[in-house]
């Protein structure tokens, strides 16, 4: 288990005084159908993008709240990683994108019938957002509307 | 910060009627954000599904996270992953 004490002094000092935004009340949707029939979407904060897409902007103050749509049939090894966070070791993720963007695992689970289907688009955000106003007001609601329009029943979110 | 981002996106998805589950390496942050469902994994930051090149372990973590979809609640649901 990682803990805040594993972070660098700079990141620890920042996080010690940071006021996290809490969900209150916590929205909670019960699954509409069993997993074996559910359409599942993958969402990562790993900052991955297609080579043809603009990478995330690491210079934006407060963080880049935009997201990229990634086709679920892409070869994960071809994806770029725009993540510039110095708070964690990226070598594992760069060696195997499935570590934080497990498209191949979810395709296997769809093929075996463990999940009903994998949604045709996965979403990639950049995790390093310190000022989440735009995320909460704009980009996350747009992402949620997209997945709802796709008929997604359940989403799996992976932090990086 | 990625853990706060995951929690806030999960909140928007839940509001739109999509059930969410996730993993966390930083329980302290996930507790504060009140992420609706999260599996606490014993891995370092940057290694949410355990190990690169270990599909079996990655699948076990994903299965355990999906199992939280059936948790009775109330939210937030935060459960430790046991790899055995």
For the largest interface in this structure, which chains are involved and how many residues does each contribute? A-B, 70 and 61 residues
Order of strands in the sheet with most strands of chain B: 1-2-3
- How many helical stretches of chain B? 3
Query: For the residues shown, what is the average pLDDT of chain A?
Result: 94
The tally of strands of chain B reads 3
**What helical percentage do the residues of chain B reach?**
40-55%
Average pLDDT taken over every residue of chain B: 96
Could you name the ranges of chain A where pLDDT drops below 50 across 5 or more consecutive residues?
A: none
How many distinct folded domains of chain B?
1
Tally of helical runs of chain A: 4
User: What characterizes the major β-sheet of chain B?
Assistant: 3 strands, parallel
Number of strands of chain A: 7
The share of residues in extended strands of chain B comes to 15-25%
How would the global form of chain A be characterised? globular
Radius of gyration of chain A: 16 Å
Low-confidence stretches of chain B: none
SSE ordering of chain A: HEEEEHHEEHE
Give me the oligomer status.
heterodimer
Question: How would you classify the helix and strand content of chain B by structural class?
Answer: alpha/beta
| Amino- and carboxy-terminal Cα gap of chain B | 29 Å
* Shape descriptor of chain B: globular
């Amino acid at each position: 288990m990682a803990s805040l004490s594993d972070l660098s002094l700079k990141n620890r000092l920042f996080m010690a005084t940071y006021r996290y935004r809490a969900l209150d009340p916590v929205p909670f949707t019960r699954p509409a159908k069993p997993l074996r029939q559910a359409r599942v979407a993958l969402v990562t904060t790993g900052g991955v993008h297609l080579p043809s897409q603009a990478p995330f902007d690491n210079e934006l103050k407060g963080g880049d709240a935009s997201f990229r749509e990634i086709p679920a049939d892409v070869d994960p090894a071809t994806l770029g990683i725009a993540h510039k966070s110095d708070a964690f070791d990226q070598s594992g993720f760069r060696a195997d994108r499935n570590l934080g963007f497990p498209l191949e695992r979810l395709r296997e689970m769809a093929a075996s019938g463990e999940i009903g289907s994998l949604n045709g688009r996965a979403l990639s955000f950049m995790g390093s957002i310190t000022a989440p106003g735009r995320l909460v007001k704009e980009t996350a609601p747009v992402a949620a509307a997209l997945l709802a329009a796709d008929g997604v029943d359940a989403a799996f979110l992976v932090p990086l | 910060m990625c853990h706060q981002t995951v929690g806030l996106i999960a909140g928007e998805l839940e509001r739109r009627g999509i059930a969410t589950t996730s993993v966390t390496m930083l329980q302290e942050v996930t507790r504060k954000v009140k992420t609706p469902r999260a599996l606490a994994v014993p891995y370092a930051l940057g290694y949410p599904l355990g190990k690169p090149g270990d599909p079996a372990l990655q699948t076990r973590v994903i299965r355990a996270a999906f199992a939280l979809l059936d948790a009775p609640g109330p939210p937030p649901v935060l459960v430790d992953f046991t790899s055995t």
